């Protein structure tokens, strides 16, 4: 049964409902075995993220050597920018977006105080994106009535842009 998610950081119009969103493994973003080094990339008032994935291989397509501190990554645990360790990395964000089929999303406001709102792990499929949340949900088989029952209860919600 279709249900609205209430977890902090989950957009009411998330592309997860539409089956278009992918969340990569957050466990690789810190702690032992950290692979993802997540870099702040502000655009106007919005915050986006760029993910550098540390690789075991030193050469290969998309692999680039970085010196210590060549890039500052953001530590969600410490709340500050830190020198990236020297090593070999793939710019995962560029790689994912280079297909032209997936995009990253901006952090939700208040991300500094709520990790769930950072959304650094979230990518979504953008081919033939629909104009409204209702159009998106109809594409995967939900009816307007089902949406209304599940809590998208008025026209403004149904006509809201997805995402
Ligand atoms: Zn997501």
From TrEMBL:
Q: InterPro entries from the xrefs?
A: Zn_M74/Hedgehog-like
Q: What is this protein called?
A: Uncharacterized protein
What is the organism field in this record? Answer: Cystobacter fuscus (strain ATCC 25194 / DSM 2262 / NBRC 100088 / M29)
